[in-house]
Write a structure and sequence with these properties.
It is a single chain. The chain has 675 residues and is of the alpha+beta class. Helix content is 51%, strand content 14%. The relative contact order is 0.11.
Length: 675
């Protein structure tokens, strides 16, 4: 990975060889928090199962990779030699040699896979999947990042158009002043310099304000997502990149802002100068037509964003309302035990004692154990033989399975929709029954009931099991992903040496964490207790990115709608100013103020409606290309489109009505006298 320790050394052959010294490298956070930043930490011993390990290195600050592991140990040759080669619980990473491609690596690794098949025929048909690490690491957030990048670009477009519009209006409004300056001897360059100084001052002031606000906004954005997000189709997670404002970016802003403002204002300066010299009303009206075109672009872009915000919000609400198959509120999850060295009855007895001890903790309502905690992307596949009623094999499949204890379903809030759940008697002696989820029943028993069907697994402890119940699907890979077909069996046949524990409590789950940990250690203080996380937090990790996207897009859409409304307001206000005499005459001839307001609204309405329609069409086309970001809602969702159109109509109407009111309040005599 190209990472060098900031203290000490990296692992080398001395650490990997059989019988080598027991060593460990720690993260910077572990060194800072638990070793108190001791500069002499190298050479210290840390207590580990199997004996102490010597610290040989400290990793750089901020380095996190694939899991929040505070300590890292070398994978020694003797450990690999003692393990079965059929075990597939390692990830492999490699750096390509110069000139090599992913395709080259895939070809070579699949040659390796074929050679392994000769020794292990059960892996016939298996292969290696070669993927670039960077692409895999950002896979979970890439669609959201692309979407937000396009959204911010659209907001920037609206802001630039709005700025150009306001510059143009201001320059046209100052045409008389600029003409007087020119008549008094100011050349065109001097006039341009005066306007440029004002423009640059405005840009620098705005940039300063934006940079002052940015750290606060970045902190708020960072809080919207968890520290770690799961990699799709993987049991690994990656740390979310933390947004920071670099000094280089801050310095660049003070170059780009004035330069951009001058670039936007340059055509307006020239046009204003010509208008001031000619005094032509035609130029004014021609300038207004150009301004209206710019405002139309603003309104269309704002409509696109408003519809996108509506679709994003509706999609997020659909995710939140999805039935997960569990009741996560009030449930604490953790992993307990490392009793692989015990036989199956002893492992079962240990976990039964743990559950009973935990259920005696005040505030604990129920506890249950399962091999893996859901919503952590862990997989545990079993080779399953589907049998007919005469116990003849019908098919052989490979599906997820979970070994559960008597309290698991009730604790997690899992519901049986057909048949019955696992009962107390099913957990005595050799397992004879099983429960499957709806996805399993639909895939393997289509068109008929799965109840009463029989199956066997690759594990001799689970043979000739009768299906007695069908469980509601648990969307263990997040609400947006269908539940995998899963088999649930009583755990006493061959429980895992480490169990996931579900604990339902009253009140805040984390408030009971310490008492639960102590209860587990009362059974055996030497056993580890790890990964203490509320279940709703695990669920939240799968929807954090969509929810953060919803919040950001809504905020940007509101900002864009306000910018477009400002543009409309500026155009109408300037139109009222330039037509002041006309309105005075009309009022003097008997026109009512409300009639003038209606006329102005009618003037703006067709162009606004056309802009909103164009934006709606663009938004629907864009939404069709972003289906991957939508869940439970289509690009033609009438509620999202309707809400966006109403919101834009209200913003444009208000931005038009406010300056239009001024037309009705003009004093006719004063307007004609000034004229």
């Amino acid at each position: 990975l190209g990472i060098e320790p900031v203290l000490g050394r990296d692992f080398d052959e001395r650490d990997r060889m059989s019988g080598g010294a027991a060593t460990v490298i720690v993260t910077h956070a572990f060194w800072r928090d638990y070793l108190e930043g001791d500069p002499d930490a190298l050479g210290r011993s840390l207590p580990f199962e199997g004996g102490p390990r010597t610290i040989i290195g400290v990793l750089p600050e901020g380095f996190e990779f694939l899991a929040p592991a505070p300590v890292i140990v070398p994978l020694r040759e003797d450990l690999l030699a003692a393990d079965e080669r059929s075990r597939i619980h390692y990830n492999v990473m490699g750096r390509l040699v110069a000139g090599a491609t992913l395709r080259d690596a895939a070809v070579e690794l699949n040659d390796v896979a074929r050679s392994i098949t000769v020794e292990y025929p059960d892996f016939e048909g298996w292969s290696f999947l070669v993927e670039p690490l960077q692409a895999v690491s950002v896979e979970a957030v890439r669609p959201a990042i692309v979407f937000l990048t396009l959204t911010v670009s659209l907001v920037l477009l609206v802001a630039l158009v709005n700025l150009a519009t306001l510059f143009r209006i201001r320059a046209m409004a100052r045409a008389g002043e600029l003409g007087v300056r020119h008549a008094l001897g100011s050349g065109k360059l001097r006039l341009a310099r005066v306007l440029a100084i004002e423009t640059v001052g405005l840009a620098v002031g705005a940039a300063t304000l934006g940079l002052l606000v940015t750290p606060f906004l970045l902190e708020r954005v960072t809080r919207m997502v968890p520290a770690w997000v799961p990699i799709p189709d993987s049991a690994s997670s990656v740390p979310v990149l933390r947004a920071t404002l670099s000094p280089e970016v801050a310095a660049l802003i003070f170059v780009v802002a004035p330069a951009g403002a001058l670039l936007l204002a340059a055509p307006t300066f020239a046009g204003a100068g010509r208008a001031s010299l000619s005094g032509s009303g035609t130029r004014v009206h021609g300038g207004l037509r150009g301004i209206r075109a710019l405002v139309g672009i603003e309104v269309a872009a704002a409509t696109v964003l408003c519809i996108g915000a509506g679709l994003t919000a509706r999609s997020a609400e659909s995710l939140l309302s999805t039935d997960l198959g569990v009741e996560p509120e009030g449930v604490l999850t953790l992993y307990v035990g490392d009793v692989w060295g015990l036989d199956a009855p002893a492992r079962t007895a240990y976990f039964r004692d743990v559950v009973e001890a935990v259920e005696r903790v005040p505030g604990v309502e129920r506890a249950g154990a399962m091999g893996y905690v859901d919503f952590q992307a862990e997989d545990d596949y079993a080779g399953i033989r589907l049998l007919d009623r005469e116990l003849r094999q019908r098919a052989s499949v490979r599906e997820e399975w979970r070994r559960v204890d008597p309290g698991l379903f009730e604790t997690a809030g899992m519901r049986v929709v057909r048949g019955r759940p696992l009962e107390a008697g099913d957990f005595e002696g050799t397992p004879a029954v099983a429960v499957v989820n709806e996805a399993f029943a639909a895939r393997h028993y289509p068109g008929r009931s799965a109840l009463g069907e029989r199956l066997s697994t690759h594990d001799p402890a689970y043979r000739e099991l009768e299906i007695v119940g069908v469980l509601r699907d648990v969307r263990s890979l997040g609400p947006a992903t269908p539940a995998p077909p899963t088999l649930y069996v009583p755990y006493q046949g061959n429980p895992r040496g480490t169990q996931g524990l579900y604990v339902r409590v009253s009140g805040d789950p984390m408030s009971r964490a310490e008492a639960i940990r102590e209860a587990i250690w009362s059974v055996d203080p030497s056993q580890p207790v790890t990964g203490i996380v509320p279940l709703d937090e695990l669920v939240g990790r799968w929807i954090a990115v969509p929810l953060a996207t919803r919040t950001l897009v809504l905020a940007l859409a509101i900002l864009t709608a306000l910018l477009s409304a400002v543009g409309v307001f500026g155009v109408v206000a300037y139109a009222v100013r330039t037509r002041r005499s006309e309105f005075g005459v009309r009022l003097a001839l008997g026109a009512s103020p409300s009639r003038l307001e209606r006329d102005l609204l009618a003037t703006v309405a067709p162009a606004a409606a056309l802009s909103v329609l164009a934006g709606t069409i663009l938004a629907v086309v864009a939404a069709r290309g972003a289906r991957a970001l939508l869940y439970g809602v289509g690009p033609l969702d009438p509620l999202s489109i309707g809400a966006a159109v109403v919101a834009m109509g209200a913003a444009i109407g208000l931005a038009t009505w406010l300056p239009a009111r001024r037309a009705g309040r003009i004093d006719p005599s004063e307007a004609m006298r000034v004229d």
